[in-house]
Amino acid sequence: MTPRPRATYSMIAKEAGVSEATVSRVLNGDSRVDGDRAKSVLDVVERLGYRKHRAATALASGRTNLIAVVIDNDLSIFSDPFWGTVTSGISRVLMENELQTLLLVTSVSSIDGPVAHYLQAGEVDGAIFFQLHKDALVRKLAKTGLPIVIAGSPHAATDFVFVDTDNFGGGHAATKHLVNRGCKKVAIITGDIETVAGHQRLDGYHQAYRELGRVPAKALTAYGDYSYESGKREMARLLADQSDIDGVFACNDLMALGAIAAIEERGLTVPNDVAVIGFDDSVVAQTSRPGLTSVRQDIVALGEAAAELMIAQLRNEPVEPRILPTQLVIRASA
User: Fold this and answer.
1) Which first-to-last residue range defines the signal peptide (predicted)?
2) pTM of the model
3) DSSP 8-state assignment for residue 128
4) What range does the domain containing 128 cover?
5) Lowest mean pLDDT among 81-85, 126-130, 171-175
6) What is the count of structural domains for the chain?
7) In terms of domains, do 156 and 110 share one?
8) Predicted confidence band of residue 268 (pLDDT cuts 50, 70, 90)
9) 334 within domain boundaries
10) CATH, residue 156
11) Which of 7, 54, 72, 321 could form a disulfide with 50 if both were Cys (CB 3.0 to 4.6 A apart)?
12) What is the DSSP string of 187-252?
């Protein structure tokens, strides 16, 4: 079956018995067009299945109605339910404002790579960055006037618009809870410490120790990458080196579940032998057995706030950075 050719202004104008200029005015919402003529155009548009061509619309209006969501990582991140949840929050708010999400998952370490060229080529109206390791590309894009939002605190004091979770407070609360429940030797499995969030959660852990007048041994810090596998691997290594560890703060829920698996494989139980706390309070924390105590960040609200800050910039409204609170949700694991 031969596909029907794409409808054009010329085709619509011919069938509706009007000029191409009238078609353009109707499709661009000009209320001054005669009602009968407008109805005739819209009836033909419906019958032919006409859809606006995004590139042509962008040339005419200067807007693409696309917002890039750039995750500075690789595709392995999608094993973590965090990303599906946060992007749903972004997409919902953008769609309510007739904007669409363009997801890019790639390293943005180069200021002259394909992503940099794409974002500078006028293909998107703005960019929201997640898990940013370096600020150089964002600085370059900001100089071009492209609206930018960073989900996560910037690496240094800047004028970038950002939204973040209270990562320091969450790390502090998790560690303090383990100490208060009687744990004598609390370890941490960090996330990606090349990101500000990873460092802040580690800093919160250190602060809880300092308040006790103690300094945690370096051997109590294990470096994960937010994956289940790294949580399991690092927990096994911690227990092999220091069998008397009785508490662990894993910097996300997937690593916490990996840690629990390693603890149980060693013949120990959670929380009787080792108490475990995660971070995110994602669906895996809410459905795991034992139930996982976790630092709750409102992941949907994080995405929504990032989208709201982007929309405010597109409307030339004033914007301020936002820090969203965390809450420790206590379940069976600690």
Assistant:
1) none
2) 0.75
3) E
4) 66-165+300-324
5) 81-85
6) 3
7) yes
8) very high
9) no
10) 3.40.50.2300
11) 7
12) EEEE--TTSHHHHHHHHHHHHHHHTTT----GGGEEE--SSHHHHHHHHHHHHHH-TT--EEEESS
